[in-house]
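The data layer described in this paper is built around a simple, fixed record for each protein. We quote a single record here, exactly as it is kept in our systems:
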Amino acid sequence: MILLARTTPLEEVKRPSEGLSLFFIDFDKKAPGLELRKIKKMGGRAVDANEVFFDNYQVREDSLIGEEGQGFKIVLHGMNAERCLLAGEALGLGYVALKRASKYAQERIVFGRAIGQNQGIQHPLAEAYMNLEAAKLATYHATRLYDASSKDSSITQHAIGIACNSAKYLAAEAAFTACERSVLAHGGMGYSQEYHVERYLRECFVPRIAPVSRASTTSQDQQIDRQSN
């Protein structure tokens, strides 16, 4: 596993984010000083989530990643790639949810006609689709910028940060809207497990929370503001 640990005492650094180092360690659950507690989640059950507790756990010196004390900077750099990945995950959830809703709206017959013929069903789904399309373009822009930066020195980390933050935020919000409206388009059956849209709604919270929680007015908004000023 990747472990971020303090290697310089807090009183010896200027900022709390300094003096942290990154390690690639063997994940031996039976090793002394390591305890795992599984977290029960509302979704994402294909992957375990655990609380991890260390107590005098021994880490090999040669497992250090990069330079000592630079671990937090390395983590922040990796978040841009993670935001692109989460944006893609969000878009996939949004599109599949709308596909399910569209199919149901064509097949569900009420008073002799498909509910999809009603504008009250059409317009919310169409708006959600347009939001996904716009977020997809922002995501493509961010990923291209991130990839190109390895060969083009004129592309700054500042520009990449703005693009990746924006893409992830827009995709997560678009996915949430699409999943919510897909559930509503199914009516009462949207709450059932039969049509899967309730599952998509649960899963779409992940891109809104990670790697930085949306929170109230959004810490991500503040990050974008700082990076664009």
